[in-house]
């Protein structure tokens, strides 16, 4: 049975698509057959981050509406053997994602895949609710600021009341907090909430902390999931998060401001 | 013929006894603008609570002239704010006839009070003597109802309502969440959202929490917002209660 993981946040621009790309790549890199679905109808950009935008012929909505088969629409990743992308439509109305349609596609994918990662659109409306409805687990992407934390809290409420698992009285959706764009310097200066603050407010287990990093922007611009930047702090933080998602114990890193280099320590005293 | 072997399931419907707790609006007089303004103010305190609720208009304390009792206008204003007037309670014969013409159901006056001719003199006496044992909470049920118990965090955008008794929450109430109860509210965690106790008018209701960080606390309609709450007991374990219509905060360890 495939595991369905939604990457969601409420607030926009916090790093859901960046996270979906890296987590799915990380799972696939470990040999799990993984598909990542872009639920952001009208605003697709997962295919850009995955560098496959020029290979999109059919999309998620085409499959839902029976205009294409899954095999026609799935794009095989060029870097990681067992990774597939199901892109979003750029042209369709959001309402094209019907609950039955989404269910049918997920069921068909579940027959052959180990992991289905759903990249949710921002907001708490239809698209976001479709993306989370069938989830078994949720990665709640949060930035260390009050408005983002508030929206994450709201999404957690929806996961608890409007997901398939809640409606059918099954075990609740397993929740993970992923704190992204974390900048320890700004936390020290009191300009951002700390990991502890966010954990305290949201009261769900911490999957990882991804530092704010220029490398993330560079990687996205090159169409490269940042987890493949093995030497970068953000890449390693995502790799740690994948490990924890699979149940491994890993110590949290990159939580404190970078140590001053040898020379700056010498000269600044 | 269906009559011959009519089974239970072939019946179109069955009548069942139902016991619901309703919110009553105790009308003192009716003037369109004043009414709408007051209503708006109440809704502002608890937007989630008023959305689509059924409402009973209680005429037991009505003092205005019967001629001004325009139920059509009253219903219209309520409907504009998504409140559904379903019935009147009490009132004299003329008032009840007006209500009936506006398609409202008629409920008997509250039992505790003998229906009396509404003589202004008598009203005045009653108001001057608040020592009467019955402060007449508008719709507090006769028997204490079982408390509602919540073990999950109440998240932003969520609302939890105990329409008849106490509400006990063994988790945080987050900013943007709203908890309401006819009776007391106990939060064994931080109270960061809005808490409204005694929503039917029970002024003895209290709110208890482990850490007061609330956006608003209201007891029987008397409320304080975050700004005012920060003056005392902020981020501490406290209880809140009404003393002479004033919301008072006291630390729990005292
Ligand atoms: N850890 C990070 N450090 C620096 N920049 C980041 C980080 N994570 C994401 N970003 C940048 O933030 C922007 C938004 O990221 P992304 O598109 O992943 O967010 P999103 O939540 O999917 O947005 P939307 O709600 O619009 O779908 C992008 O420019 C991305 O490169
Ligand atoms: Mg996105």
UniProtKB/TrEMBL annotation, chain A:
Domain of life: Bacteria
Short name of one Pfam family: AAA_31
SUPFAM superfamilies: P-loop containing nucleoside triphosphate hydrolases
Record flagged with keyword ATP-binding: yes
NCBIfam families: minD_bact
PANTHER family per UniProt: SEPTUM SITE-DETERMINING PROTEIN MIND HOMOLOG, CHLOROPLASTIC (PTHR43384:SF6), SEPTUM SITE-DETERMINING PROTEIN MIND HOMOLOG, CHLOROPLASTIC-RELATED (PTHR43384)
Protein name: Septum site-determining protein MinD
Origin species: Marinobacter halodurans
TrEMBL record, chain B:
Keywords: Cell cycle, Cell division, Septation
Biased composition (Low complexity): 127-144
Domain of life of the source: Bacteria
Span list, region Disordered: 109-144
Cited InterPro entries: CAP/MinC_C (IPR016098), MinC (IPR013033), MinC_C_sf (IPR036145), MinC_N (IPR007874), Septum_form_inhib_MinC_C (IPR005526)
Pfam families in the record: MinC_C, MinC_N
The keyword Cell division appears for this protein: yes
Keyword RNA-binding: no
Domain (Septum formation inhibitor MinC N-terminal) ranges: 13-84
Annotated ranges, domain Septum formation inhibitor MinC C-terminal: 150-249
UniProt-listed HAMAP family: MinC
Protein family according to the UniProt entry: Belongs to the MinC family.
Functional summary from the UniProt entry: Cell division inhibitor that blocks the formation of polar Z ring septums. Rapidly oscillates between the poles of the cell to destabilize FtsZ filaments that have formed before they mature into polar Z rings. Prevents FtsZ polymerization.
Subunit structure of this chain's protein: Interacts with MinD and FtsZ.
Name by which UniProt lists this protein: Probable septum site-determining protein MinC
Gene name as annotated: minC
């Amino acid at each position: 049975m495939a595991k369905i993981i939604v990457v969601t946040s409420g607030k926009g621009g916090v790093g859901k698509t960046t996270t979906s790309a890296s987590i799915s790549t990380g799972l696939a890199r470990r040999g799990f057959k993984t598909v990542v679905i872009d639920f952001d109808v009208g605003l697709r950009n997962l295919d850009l981050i995955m560098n496959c935008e020029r290979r999109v012929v059919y999309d998620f909505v085409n499959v839902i509406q029976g205009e294409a088969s899954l095999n026609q629409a799935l794009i095989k990743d060029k870097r990681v053997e067992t990774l597939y992308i199901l892109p979003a439509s750029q042209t369709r109305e959001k309402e094209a994602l019907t609950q039955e349609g989404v269910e049918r596609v997920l069921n068909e994918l579940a027959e052959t895949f180990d992991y289905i990662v759903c990249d949710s659109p921002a907001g708490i409306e239809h698209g976001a609710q479709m993306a989370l409805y069938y989830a078994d687990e949720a990665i709640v992407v949060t930035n260390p600021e009050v408005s983002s934390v508030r929206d994450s809290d709201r999404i957690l409420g929806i996961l608890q009341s409007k997901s398939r698992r809640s409606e059918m009285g099954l075990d609740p959706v397993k929740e993970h907090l992923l704190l992204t764009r974390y900048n320890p310097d700004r936390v020290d200066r009191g300009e951002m909430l700390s990991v502890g603050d966010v954990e305290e407010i949201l009261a769900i287990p911490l999957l990882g902390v991804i530092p704010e990093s220029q490398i993330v922007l560079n990687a996205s611009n090159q169409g490269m999931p940042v987890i493949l930047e093995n030497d970068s702090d953000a890449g390693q933080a995502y790799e740690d998060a994948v490990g924890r998602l699979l149940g491994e114990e890993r110590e949290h890193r990159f939580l404190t401001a970078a140590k001053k280099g040898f020379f700056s320590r010498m000269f600044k005293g | 013929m269906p009559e011959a072997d009519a089974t239970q399931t072939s019946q179109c419907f069955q009548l069942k006894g139902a016991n619901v707790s309703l919110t009553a609006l105790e009308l003192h007089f009716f003037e369109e603008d004043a009414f709408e303004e007051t209503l708006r103010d109440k809704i502002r305190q608890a937007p989630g609570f008023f959305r689509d609720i059924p409402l009973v208009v209680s005429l037991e304390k009505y003092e205005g002239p019967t001629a001004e009792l325009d139920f059509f206008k009253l219903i219209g204003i309520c409907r504009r704010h998504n409140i559904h007037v379903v019935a009147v309670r009490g009132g004299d014969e003329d008032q009840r006839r007006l209500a009936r013409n506006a398609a409202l159901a008629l409920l008997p006056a509250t039992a505790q009070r003998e229906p009396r001719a509404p003589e202004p003199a008598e009203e005045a006496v009653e108001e001057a003597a608040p020592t009467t044992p019955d402060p007449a909470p508008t719709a507090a049920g006769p028997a204490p109802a079982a408390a509602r118990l919540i073990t999950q965090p109440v998240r932003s955008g969520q609302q939890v309502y105990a329409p008849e008794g106490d509400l006990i929450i063994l988790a945080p109430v987050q900013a943007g969440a709203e908890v309401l109860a006819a009776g007391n509210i106990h939060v064994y965690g931080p109270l960061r959202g809005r808490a409204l106790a005694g929503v039917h008018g029970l002024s003895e209701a209290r709110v208890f929490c482990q850490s007061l960080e609330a956006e608003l606390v209201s007891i029987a309609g008397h409320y304080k917002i975050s700004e005012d709450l920060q003056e005392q007991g902020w981020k501490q374990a406290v209880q809140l209660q009404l003393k002479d219509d004033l919301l008072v905060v006291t630390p729990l360890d005292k």
